[in-house]
Amino acid sequence: xxxxxxxxxxxxxxxxxxxxxxxxxxxHQANIRIIESIAKxxxxxxEKFFVNLxxxxxxxxxxxxxxxxxxxxxxxIKKGDKLLVWSSMMTMSLPAQTHADKVIVLP
Length: 107
What we know:
The chain is 38% helix and 13% strand. By secondary structure, the protein is an alpha+beta fold.
């Protein structure tokens, strides 16, 4: 929770984007309190975060693919959207974290 805002800033900087440019944040689905805390620190509404933790719990490495598929099927992502994908690699060392999060622009 403490490191994510810094990691996010680096990720957005590398992508030449700001947080307001992001259409949807797809976080690792580990813990709703962590997601809520990060939303608060980023001053972003929870509606900007795709959360399916209540349906499946923490599905480990499958959380991002499941969330991407579900968000697509629910019509929450569309052509041209910018998605911030936040992986479970947040627990790794800081050098690894700079590669753990990506901005995806849908073609």
